[in-house]
Amino acid sequence: MKSAGGYAPARIRGHERNHGKTVASVLFLGGLGLMLFELISAVPFGSAPMQVGQAIAGEAFARTGADNIVTAILLGYRGLDTLGEVTILFTAAAAAGMVLAGAGRGEAQGQEAGFIFRTAAWMLFPFLLVLGAYIIIHGHLTPGGGFQGGAILAAAFFTPLLASPASPFNHRVAILVEGFAGLVFVVIGLAGLAKGAFLTQLLGTGTPGALLSAGSLPVLYVAIGLKVGSELAGLMARVFGEGSARS
Amino acid sequence: MTGTLLYGGAIGLVIIGLYAIVARRHLMRNIFGLAVMESGVNLLLASVGYRPGGHAPILVAGAAPGPLVDPIPQALVLTAIVIGFGVLALALALVVRVRQAYGTLDNRAVARRLRAENGEARS
Amino acid sequence: MSQSLPAIIYPVAIPLMGAFLLPIGARRMAELAGLFGRIVVLLSFSTSLALAVSIWTAGPAVSAMGGFAAPLGIVFYADRLAMLFLLALNVAVFLFWPRGQGAKGGPCTLMLALLAGGSGLILSGDLFNIFVFYEITAVASYGLAASGRTHAGFAAALRFLILGSVGSSLMLIGIALIYARTGTLNLADLSRIAPHALTGPVGLAAFILLLAGLGVKAELVPLNTWVPEVYGAAPARVSALLAGVVSKLAMVVALRFVVQVFPGDGAHTVLLVAGILGVLAGELAAWRAGSLMETFSYSSIAQLGMVALAFSISGAAGIAAGIALALHHAVVKPAFFMLAARWRGPVGGLAGAVKDSPLAVWLFVILSLSIIGIPPFPGFWAKFLFLKAAFAAPSAGVWIAVFVMLAGTVVEAAYLFRAVLVFFADGERGGSTPRFAFAQLAPALGLGAVLLAAMVFIAPLGASISGMADEASNAAAMAARVLDRGE
After folding, report:
1. Of A21, C52, C233, C257, which shows the fewest CB atoms inside 10 Å?
2. In a domain, C413, yes or no
3. Can you tell me the distance from the alpha carbon of A72 to that of A56, in angstroms, rounded to the nearest whole number?
4. Rg (CA), chain C
């Protein structure tokens, strides 16, 4: 198995290279690039019309109570995009799980990392958890939010796995968390139907700048953070080969 | 100047990514090309929202600290990055399986084997 | 006037909740996953049906997500065209629900995600939101393409994914280009701004980039190299679903773009060229193909090319013809795929099939007659609508489209009759070709019944389609419904 671990570039390099084709594709792509550049430069840099953006920037705070306008857009104005985006992550994780079921472990996955990494991975774990949680619950006030925080949560769980592949990763809990977090998102959205439309903001806007403000947006972000965290960790653990050994 | 650099860099990344996908036969390189191309697209999208002298779209004490950059492309990019990540992870999972199945990651060889297998009668 | 209908989110929300819940239960009770999924689809179908009735009686509906009115927020826009394809998607997902070994948690979850994504794709009225739902649909179909868990399935899915992701990235560049020019993402808003902001080469390039994304799913040339690979390697039910309905969803979205954002001649010419290439390449490859599966993969490319040709004729008549062709294909092609899944291998090996499985062969004959366009089958009416639209709006491009369409029909007839002649070959005693179990034939027979029913109700069906096309071709009225709501 070790010899096959070199992927396959050597075998491919063995084939004769077709220089004519390479030159042709470079020329074609270069032309395409110039064309795209000309097209995008037709709007001078920094002067794109910002009508919708301006309008949102003007009213977002009053409507949602979130200081971070990007958050107001992600969870309010374009909340459906965000639901779609977590769905894509969920679908990719489900597909990857299906594809990799029974694939067995690869050759590089049995090795323990060195002492420093192993120790640091466990020492980092609580700090990463706190940092992730902090970033998630402050998403409506400061840069950050469910996706960034969720990625850090996933790192917290994945780093120990990288350090010692034998350590357990509980896929059942990950599936449970991602399923229910997604459900919470949709249910909050459907609850908004009572106030007019899907994903209408609930709970009022609250005191500007306070941690408990911006109504249901932070709740959505917690759901996203948990969902993204469990999905990323689960996905990486699957690709890494951990989960497939058991399921 | 900044604009040329950003737009040029973004388009450049897209083209480099496309080259890795079109002209290279190694499936891993194709997937890296995909990642590079997506970064280029995201950079392009983020650059569209630029305003001279604009601040990050976060209010301080409920008021804008000055003119803001367009917040919408930033939200779009955030969405696009996560989408790209999901697709990439699925691609890697499939690569593992293709490698196990055919013992090679040469895209053209895989395509040949695939056609041969599809041509055969399966029950 | 438009009605506000917040419940229009249910066709997306119900399958989405089902998809989130299914993996939790599937770990314990794998055998119940299929049943649970079917119940969710039925629920989604009945909700969609109720919404469709309301839209048929009270006119197109709009819902602003989160209460943020267009163009600031995302809107769903549902007219009769959207509801028709929404119902077709629900029916197809139910009909082609995974069976047997494939009906585990993974494929069932992906089917529900595909249903949610496709529903959002057809209902959304926002450019970037369409991209997001398109990606859900795409990722679910990459997964489903591999759900047979064969070597070929993994390889085909990976190559499909790479091509599809390149298309999606190009589509995103197109969206960036449009946003940079107009500052909005709402289709209704764009229909007012685009005529003066998205003109000339920028508009054309933006349309081509968007079409590069949609074209992967819609099997447009040259983005369809995945078609024979995936349809050959994926489970037949998945092929039937992707070729039958999912490709049409992409086509309808392309139509929305043409009507609302790119009403100029340039976009129509692009569709015309894509259609011509699709019909020619598809039919010729289908004629040369060795197995039935391959034949129908390629002919599906040609059929979608014909839909593109119809949409390239500007005006409601062309749209009506395109809807009729797409609808007809959505009924016939999945049935063909279900037959071809049993009759694998070279066509020559199927000699005398009529003695082994007469029902399947006669179904094949009826489907063939309809897709070629022999009256009184519905396929004839679809092609007749196309010719009528072409004669009503004559131009050089339209005449080429008509010629290509007729030439394609001749080739189509040639290879379908060739197969039929083999089935009826004399001197074969039978027994050498596969027989159909009833469960295998049932979905195809059901679609055949739908086809025959359509033949009986062709007059009201035609009137309904042309009303639908009138509604979908009027960009100004659509924009007024979404934007001028007197709030």
Report:
1. A21
2. yes
3. 9
4. 22
Helix axis angle for C127-145 and C151-182, nearest 10°, is 170
Q: What is the pLDDT of residue A159?
A: 86
A111 three-state secondary structure: coil
Residues in a beta bridge with B60 = B63
* CA C216 to the chain's CA centroid: 12
Q: Which domain holds residue B86?
A: 2-56+65-119
**Is the Cβ–Cβ distance between C423 and C355 less than 8 Å?**
no
Do the domain assignments include residue C145?
no
In whole angstroms, what is the distance from residue A187 CA to residue A183 CA?
A: 6
Model confidence pLDDT, tens digit, residues A107-139: 455 667 788 888 888 888 999 999 999 998 888
DSSP collapsed to 3 states, C159-176: HHHHHHHHHHHHHHHHHH
Q: In Å, how far is B35's CA from the nearest CA of chain C?
A: 10
Q: Residue C355 burial (CB < 10 Å; 0-12/13-18/19+)?
A: middle
**Angle at CA B11, nearest 5°, toward B6 and B17?**
125
pLDDT value of residue C368: 93
CA dihedral over B53, B56, B59, B60, signed as positive or negative: negative
Q: Are A197 and C66 in contact (CB under 8 A)?
A: yes
Using alpha carbons only, give the angle C14, C19, C23 rounded to the nearest 5 degrees. Answer: 145
- CATH for B90: 1.10.287.3510
B39 to chain C: nearest residue by CA? C169
Exposed/middle/buried for C196, CB within 10 Å: 0-12, 13-18, 19+?
exposed
Q: Are strands C3-4 and C75-78 parallel, antiparallel or unpaired?
A: unpaired
Q: Could you tell me if A52 and C72 are in contact, meaning their C-beta atoms sit under 8 angstroms apart?
A: yes
Closest partner residue to B114 among C156, C290, C291, by Cβ?
C156
Residue the block writes with tokens 């469709």: C52
Q: Provide block-wise average pLDDT over 10 residues at a time, chain C (487 residues).
A: 81 93 79 86 94 90 86 90 94 86 78 95 94 96 90 92 94 92 90 85 90 89 84 87 91 92 88 92 89 89 93 89 93 90 80 82 91 88 91 87 92 91 74 76 88 89 89 86 73
Q: Can the peptide bond before residue C376 be classed as cis, meaning omega within 30 degrees of 0?
A: yes
Per the structure, how many domains does chain B have? 1
If one counts the domains in chain C, the total is 1
Distance of CA C83 to the CA centre of its chain: 14
HSE, side-chain direction, 13 A CA sphere, residue B101: 26
- Which residues of chain C does A234 touch, with a Cβ-Cβ cutoff of 8 Å? none
- C positions 102-161 inside 8 Å of A (CB): 104, 106-107, 109-110, 113, 116-117, 120, 124, 128-129, 132-133, 135-136, 139-140, 142-143, 146-147, 149, 154, 157
Has residue C162 been placed in a domain? no
Which runs of consecutive H residues, i.e. helices, occur in chain A? Answer: 9-14, 19-41, 51-64, 69-71, 79-100, 115-137, 146-163, 171-192, 217-240
Task: Return the closest-CA partner of residue C382 out of C340, C337, C325, C438.
Answer: C325
Contact: B93, A50; criterion CB under 8 Å = no
Residue C269 belongs to what domain range? 264-456
Query: What is the band of A242 on the pLDDT scale with cuts at 50, 70, 90?
Result: very low
Specify the residue for token string 């039937």.
Answer: C240
Q: Which residues of C touch B118 (CB under 8 A)?
A: 152, 156, 228-229, 232-233, 293-294
| Residue A112 identity | E
Look up residue B98 and give its two tokens. 């293709």
SS3 category, C64: strand
In which residue are the tokens 């037949």 written? Answer: C236
* Residue at token pair 């529900």: C112
Spatial strand order in the sheet of C3-4: C3-4, C61-64, C75-78
The residue extents of the domains of chain A are: 17-47, 68-245
Considering the domain boundaries, does residue C361 fall inside one? yes
